[in-house]
Amino acid sequence: MSVRHTEVTAEPAPLTPCGLPEHPACGIRDVLDRVGDKWSVLVIVELAGGPRRFRQLQRAVDGISQRMLTLTVRRLERDGLVARTVYPTVPAQVDYRLTDTGASLTHLVKALADWSLEHRDTITLARRAYDDEHPGNEIR
User: Fold this and answer.
1) The 3-state secondary structure of the chain, one letter per residue
2) How does pLDDT run across 86-137, given as a tens digit for each residue?
3) Which pTM does this prediction carry?
4) How distant, in Å, are the alpha carbons of 28, 56, 79, 88, 129 from that of 39?
5) What is the CA radius of gyration of the chain?
6) CA separation (Å) from 9 to 5, 14, 46, 115, 130?
7) Which residue, 62, 52, 61, is CA-closest to 93?
8) What span, in angstroms and rounded, lies between the C-alpha atoms of 136 and 123?
9) Residue 75, Cα to own-chain centre: how many angstroms?
10) What are phi and psi of 108, to 5 degrees?
C-alpha cells in the first residue's frame, strides 16, 4: 500500500502484535512515542506548510509552551523528522523544516485526519451511548 493510499476498509489490516517471539521489537511503540503525542503531530502539521521560525511555530501551535516546543522540536530533530538551520546573523536566526522522512509522515497524518473527520459523528454517538450506559464513569 502506498503512503498516499487513504481508502479505509471495515476489515482489520493484517498486523502482527509487538512482543511476539516472531515479531520482538517491531518499533511501533518507539515511533508512537514520538508521533503519538499531540505536540509532535501539531508541529509536523505546521511544518508541512514550509519552514518556520521558533516564534512562528509557537504562535501557530495553540497552547504549547516555550519549553514544550523546545523539547518537541529537539525530539523531532533527534528522530530525523525535523531539520534545524541556524543562520549566522546577529541575533542568530533559526528555522525548522521537515526532512524527507518527516515530509513522508505528513501523508499518514493527513490520512488519520481524514479518517477522524469521516468518523467523528459515529464516535460522538458511541461516546454518548457509552456515557448513558455508564453514568458517572465518563472518560475524558
Assistant:
1) CCCCCCCCCCCCCCCCCCCECCECCCCHHHHHHHHCCHHHHHHHHHHCCCCEEHHHHHHHCCCCCHHHHHHHHHHHHHCCCEEEEEECCCCCEEEEEECHHHHHHHHHHHHHHHHHHHHHHHHHHHHHHHHHHCCCCCCC
2) 999 998 899 999 999 999 999 988 998 899 999 999 999 999 999 998 888 7
3) 0.75
4) 18, 15, 15, 28, 30
5) 19
6) 11, 12, 29, 11, 24
7) 52
8) 19
9) 13
10) -70, -40
User: How many C-beta neighbours within 10 Å does residue 72 have?
Assistant: 23
Q: Taking the CB of residue 81, how many other CB atoms lie within 10 A of it? A: 23
Nearest to 17 by CA among 6, 29, 9, 5: 29
In angstroms, rounded to a whole number, what is the distance separating the alpha carbons of residues 101 and 83? 10
